[in-house]
Amino acid sequence: MSIINFIENYQKKKRILFTTPSHSQGAFVAPKSKKLIGSRFFSCDFSEIEGFDNLANPIGIIRAAQEDAAAIYGAKSTFFLTNGSTSGIVGAMYSVLNKNEKVIIARNCHKSVYNGLVLTGAVPIWLMPGYNSEWGIYDSLNLNYIEELLYKNKDVKAVIITNPTYEGVMFDITKISAVCKKYGAILIVDEAHGALWNFHKAIGIPSLLQGADIVIQSLHKTAGALNPSALLHLGWDSPIEPKIIQQSLNLFTTTSPSYPLLLNIEATINYLASKKGQIYIQNYIKKLNRLIRSLKTIPNLEVYSVNNDITKVLVKVTNMSGFELSGIMIDKYGIEDELANEKSALYLTGIGTSDSKLNKLEKALFSLCDNNIKLLPNKSKYDVLSVIEPRMRYTPAAVWGKSSKEVDIQHSLARVSMELIADYPPGIPVLLPGEVIKKEHIEYLSETRKKIKVLA
């Protein structure tokens, strides 16, 4: 029986519960919450009472739902995550890595990978992606460079990359997976922004089906589930045992998982895999393709369209920085982007993006470009950032809990950073604790801060 059907049937029993949660399935809801959310949501919120299942050791309805999901995604095992992709990334790292073991990590990975480095004590070897200065984004991974790092470090246990990137750039996971298998390294892919790929290959090809060992997806980012719903998939050919993944996730996952989130995860997956869901996705893709074709006709506007996920609409305007574009779109048209940089702005779409929203974006960009004041672009700090090769003096785990002091950022050259500094979004680290501060860091950061914490 599914989680949804079980809860529907359980509600009909009208049991008198002296258990958590204390709102008693909506008998009490704070007035402002009730006004915004309603009480129906609370009616589905239960603890692990008799007949329900336990996310830490699923043997009933959660296990059945996860097995159904694994069949849909083509995974050996699928795990529901109610702590977001961050818990999946940390859990995956903890399942594979031990103290002082080496791991190759693409530098454009999410900052949650840092959490995994602290908890595992693993030693990162940084893989620098290619940088596109015209768009202000990382846009390539050099396969030969990955193999070179694996060849020079034959004791590497894992490789961690992000696919697609926040801006939608996709990589050839089949080739990367083959190289990892050649050297016996586990391939972990943060596919948080590729949660729709399994349901329509025109958007992207799932990393799991390209040979990745562990894949983490955020259902809330593009696939329409509640925040922070996510999934961890284990590949059929992966040497990692499902029980190891479960044990690791249990270390970082709440013992009070949300049944509203769990049933929403199940419902979202089942709908997207259904005939109705497939039609819905196809219509969504048609709308996106129409939008992109239209945007490409706008003078002085460019749309990024090189090996990218079309759900991420990355645009730039001639002689206008991404920050300026973002500001005008918000102030004049009331349209907010997902992120902006010195060169471009990202308008993130998802399964719930309506025709009305897409039309308003299209009209606003037409209007803006018709009235485009010729602005001189600012010096791009992203161009400075792109050439910084991280120099690690200590691992993140080695400096965790060490004494620090705050100094003037202009006097921090060659000191060891004790701060994790990342632009958010997208959450890609500029500096990690244990790394040496370079003059490029100071140039990049001094625009926004005067002090920085360093190793005492």
Number of strands: 17
Termini separation comes to 57 Å
Strand content: 15-25%
* Global structural class: alpha/beta
Unreliably modeled segments = none
Largest sheet: 7 strands, mixed
- How many separate helices? 17
Mean pLDDT: 90
In spatial order, strands of the major sheet run 1-9-8-7-6-2-3
List keywords for this structure.
17 helices; alpha/beta; single chain; seven-stranded mixed beta sheet; 456 residues; four-stranded antiparallel beta sheet
Architecture overview:
The chain has helices at residues 3-13, 31-37, 40-43, 61-73, 84-96, 112-120, 143-152, 173-182, 219-222, 242-252, 259-273, 275-295, 322-333, 355-370, 381-386, 396-399, 439-445, and strands spanning 77-81, 102-106, 123-127, 130-132, 137-140, 156-162, 186-190, 214-218, 230-234, 301-303, 312-317, 339-340, 345-348, 404-408, 421-423, 428-431, 451-455. It has 456 residues and is of the alpha/beta class. It contains 17 helices and 17 strands. The strands form five sheets. It has a seven-stranded mixed β-sheet with strand order 1-9-8-7-6-2-3, sandwiched between helices. The chain has a four-stranded antiparallel β-sheet with strand order 10-11-13-12. The mean pLDDT is 90. The radius of gyration is 23 Å and the shape is globular. The chain is 38% helix and 17% strand.
Short description:
The protein has 456 residues and is an alpha/beta fold. Helix content is 38%, strand content 17%.
How are the SSEs ordered, and which strands pair?
Blueprint: H1 3-13, H2 31-37, H3 40-43, H4 61-73, E1 77-81, H5 84-96, E2 102-106, H6 112-120, E3 123-127, E4 130-132, E5 137-140, H7 143-152, E6 156-162, H8 173-182, E7 186-190, E8 214-218, H9 219-222, E9 230-234, H10 242-252, H11 259-273, H12 275-295, E10 301-303, E11 312-317, H13 322-333, E12 339-340, E13 345-348, H14 355-370, H15 381-386, H16 396-399, E14 404-408, E15 421-423, E16 428-431, H17 439-445, E17 451-455
Parallel strand pairs: 2-3, 2-6, 6-7, 7-8
Antiparallel strand pairs: 1-9, 4-5, 8-9, 10-11, 11-13, 12-13, 14-17, 15-16
Helix pairs in contact: 4-11, 5-6, 5-10, 7-8, 11-12, 12-14
